Amino acid sequence: MSPSFLNSWPSGRIGLVCGLRLLVLSPLLTSGRPSNCSHPLVPEHGGFRCSPSPCRGFPPKSFIRFFCEPGYHISSKEPNSKCRHGKWFPPIPACIKGHGTKEFGVLLHVIPPQMRQHSISSLPL
């Protein structure tokens, strides 16, 4: 628009100024709104379950529970993450190779093959 056009139309100048202010302030206006989390990374040798199940996006305050394959355990004490302000908290854990598997925060010990015969035969029937 030419300056002479803006001078002849006061509402045009006001509209232009208001439009520019709105454009500059738009990120600030939307920053207070809760945002969804992205699909969480799946730990190698593990996975996650949604609460509630099945997963239908990841809105704020949604929970996921991590688990590991047999022979691996979760690297953190907390197997749950919650969507807060568009990020998962606590961060996504890793599955670490070990002698047991830690699923849902409980360490389950695996009986070595050489001990299985003795363990099973010694059980009362």
From TrEMBL:
Residues of the Sushi domain: 48-97
SS bonds (residue pairs): 68-95
Keywords on record: Disulfide bond, Signal, Sushi
GO BP annotation list: DNA damage response
Signal peptide start and end residues: 1-19
Listed Gene3D superfamilies: Complement Module, domain 1
Protein's name according to its UniProt entry: Sushi domain-containing protein
Organism expressing this protein natively: Nothobranchius pienaari
